[in-house]
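dude i think i finally got it to work??
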Amino acid sequence: MTLEQLRIFVEVAEREHLTQAATALSLTPSAVSASIRMLENRYGTPLFNRVGRRIETSAAGRIFLTEARATLASARAAELTLAELGGLTRGTVSIQASQTIASYWLPALLVRFRQTYPQIELNLTVGNTQQVAHAVVEGAADLGFIEGHIDQAALAIETVDEDRIVAVVAPGHPWANGERLKPSELLAGQWIMREQGSGTRSAFEAILEEIGVDLGGLQIALTLPSNEAVRSAVMAGPFATVVSELVVASHLQAGLLCKVNIDLPPRSFYLLRHKERYKTKASLALQEVIQQRQAVM
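look at this
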C-alpha cells in the first residue's frame, strides 16, 4: 500500500463521509472510493460498512486507523528530518491548541515566529484539552497547548503562562450588582458551560471542589462547544458562566457583560510535547520564542 492510500483511508475514517474526505484531499469522490476499494480487495477486509447512503468505519477499520495514523506520523517525521538538514530555511510545525489559547493567546506569538522564520509553515488546529493531548500522543501535532490538567505519561508538560478565569453575567442579572458572592450562592444560579473535556470547564470544576461547592448541585442550563457561543448565550439571558478573562475583556470594558464579585484562583497554560518523538528544529524554535516571552514577563 502507498502513503497516499493511507492518507485517503484516514480522511474517510475520521469523517465517515466520502465526499467530505474527497474535498479535504482535493480529489474526486470516485478516486477516493476506488482507493478504499483497492485496499479492501487487496487485503480481503472490509474497512467500512455501507449503511444506506452512509458509511461507518468497521471494527477492522478502527484497528487499522490507529496503525495508519502512526505510519503517517512516522513518514512525516522522516520528511521533516530531511527538510531540516539545511537549517531553518524550510519546515513545518503542526500545532494543536485549546480554544482560548488558539484564539486569544497564541496568535501574537505565531506572528512573531513567522516574522523571524518566514519559510517555516505553521499549521494550527483547534480542539479541547483532551483532543489536543491525544493529537500530541498520536503524533498528529508536534506541540500542543492546553489550559486544563492532563495526566498522560507519554507527554512532557511545561507551564508557559498563567490565565485568570472569571465568572460573568449580563448587566440585568442579580449578580451584576457588584456585591460579594459567597461560594455556596453559586448553586442558586443557572449556568452555561463548555463541553466536558474543555480546559475551562475542568478548571472550574476543580475550583468548585477546592472551595467546597458540590459540583452535582450546579444547575447547568446549556452546554455549548465554544467560548464565543457561551459568551453570546450569557449576554442573551439570565445565566452565568466562567471563561478566561481574555475572552470577555472587551465585553466587560464595553459594559455588555459584568464580572461577578467572587475570587477564582488563576490557572496555567501548558505546552505539551511527546517525550520520545524527534524534536524538529522548527518546533524547538517556536518553543524558544514562547520561552523568550516568559523571560520578558
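The first strand starts at residue 48 and ends at 51.
im so relieved honestly
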